[in-house]
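Tutorial sheet, problem 5. The two components below are modelled jointly, 781 residues in total.
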Amino acid sequence: MFVTKLTQKTLATAVAFALLFAAYVPTARAESKLQIMTATTDLAALAQEIGGDKVDVESVARGYQDPHFVEAKPSFLLKLRRADLLIVVGLELEIGWLPPLITQSTNPKIQVGAPGYFDASRFARILEIPTGAVTRAEGDVHPQGNPHYWLDPENGLRIAKGIADKLSQMRPNDSAYFEQRYSAFEQKLKQADQQWQAQMKPYAGRKIVTYHRSWPNFAEHFGLNVVGYVEPRPGIPPSPQHTVELIGQMKRNGVKVICVEPYFDLKTPNAVARDTGGKVVVLMPSVGGEKEITDYFKLFDYDIAKLKQAFDETK
Amino acid sequence: MKRLASFAAFLFLALPALAQETTPQRPASPPGDVRIQSLEEQVHLLADQVAQLRAELRDMRDAKGAPSAANKVVLASAQITPGMLPSPPEPIANPSPASAPAEPVSPPATPPQVAQTQTFGGATSNAKLLNPDISMIGDFIGTAGHNPVAPGRALELHESEVGMQAIIDPYARADVFLSFGEEGVNVEEGYITFTSLPAGLLMKVGKMRAEFGKVNTIHNHALPFIDRPLVTNNLIGGEDGIDDAGISLTRFLPAPKNWFAEGTAQVFRGDSSDVFSSSRRQDLSVVGHLRAYRDLSESTNIDLGVSYARGHNNTSVVGTSFNPSDFMTNLYGADATLRWKPLRRAIYNSFLFRTELFWSNRDQLSPLSVFQTQHAFGMYSHAEYRLNRRWTLGGRFDRSGHATNASLTDTGFSGILTYWPSEFSQVRTQYRYGHLWDDATLRYTNANELLFQFLFVMGAHGAHPF
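Model answer (structure tokens):
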């Protein structure tokens, strides 16, 4: 009886392993397109600007999704497995979902620290880096600074430069192509930024309230003054007491515009707006937040148009 | 003479002080307004120079495309950012040259982010950088009500789980979870994961929860209920489940379009709670798992799995002619999960339905010492709905035979309400009804209990797999 049991066991193990190995199909892809995965759509948009038709880019998160809370669905693993380059926001924005995806992807190229792992925050100017003791009494703080840094065209340019260098390094034969695309992007962005600046100039110094701390870079760049938040602390849902305080603060400071990300509930912001005679404006923090926001430029076009409208209506 | 020497010494010491006192007095000789004028000139000159330097710095930064020192992200503890020293923002005295239109001078209305002034102790905090991510999860459970079969403690710090997680080297990461219970310490899991193996293999080596179904892989604090389903206790080894030292290999399997498939094969020593027990070195246990996943839409997905486990059990053979290695337990499992989570409102509403079925074939001796195999079946179904950002409502149905006596079937159901003050703490209450076989009185008895639980997370606890 023992012999049969042992054979049975060996057989079971052998079948299991055979199943694992038999499925191995070598993936041969020579100088085909570079496969780029990004954590968010903004990074995908920037990578697309630089990579042009030499790359395939896809983002894990959608533009209307809260980038802190993305589900690590196995369907992403199939794409991550084939990726040559993974571009992440960093600063622990994706800490809740990306690490298991990277581990399970079994793709050595994109493991943390590998050449195909690209942390965009290393190229951007980061705001709100806490100094001194950091505790969660302040909510879901990011000890390395505010991760919503892509909402500043200057940072967009810096990240694009980083991506261009990275792509040139990975595909030296195409480096001239990437450099040329970067130059074109730089020129286009600088022109666009001049227009955006001009559009926002009349509103310089205007005070706004935002739901989450997603907008410090945007506000700094366009000269807005964020004076309060609907969330009492980052990542903590609004509380009645804080809402009352916020209403008081807005009335004292004459703040009329409340900016809300598309993934937050509008109940509290609407109530605040009713009490203060203000206006709620849903701004898109990311490319793809609305159908028409198909690239990095349209993101600012959209947000600035919405803001202008809100400012004009609440004069 | 001595007095002269001391006077000289006094003079020597006092001279610098005198000099310091006299220096500012010297320009005081010209009339006051002239002096102010010259000072003003100096200030203007300096201001111009500062503006010029700033513009130069900005140009340099732009020319380099930014990742230069000025923008490199270093740790707050070590950061001195040249462009952001805590001087007041310079007015637009010297507009930047045309080369930098994308870097407009920030309007004075928004003062630049206060510079990260250098903090001390940089060396130590840099050394700490290589420490693993350390977390502690406290799991406090209280129980009230009537349960003669499995009476829990009224109040207990059920478990304190310390997690340490780090990347080991370019090829591997490691995760260790130590569980401090009321009775002692247990390495709940401790394994290294090799992420850079050829052929798309993912290998784990160490002690780990076996990939047998869903609930067996989930840590206590991540469960959607306070207790574990009846079937876990009756057939799959109780709270710790199949949790053993061994080697695990996982890889993706070819699948039809839009499907994701994955296979896992694991070999363990063969000691897992009361499910598997190894009396000889070759009494290993094996676990196999196949998983298929599909996105039905952006917000809805299904997750299916089948599992198999085989190992030696702990049937006592004292006083018989049987060999302990003759007694095997074969476990079969099937699981199905349906999830719904709208992306735009992911933090407010979601729904999950999961059901798991288990079959246990256990070799054992009948009371008359005759070799027999008990075929027991158990299952649970669980559904939960997230009502809003803070509240989730759930329910569970349980039904399970006993592994050693398949004719006895326990039944139960639970209602669960969970509240999250934040991401890092959780308050949960569960009403649990059970129709359970009582070995002491040899009849079925009813159990009605109210459980409550407080969970809290300290530190950086790594994300759990989906």
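Marking note: Chain B touches chain A through 83 residues (CB under 8 Å). Full credit if you identified this.
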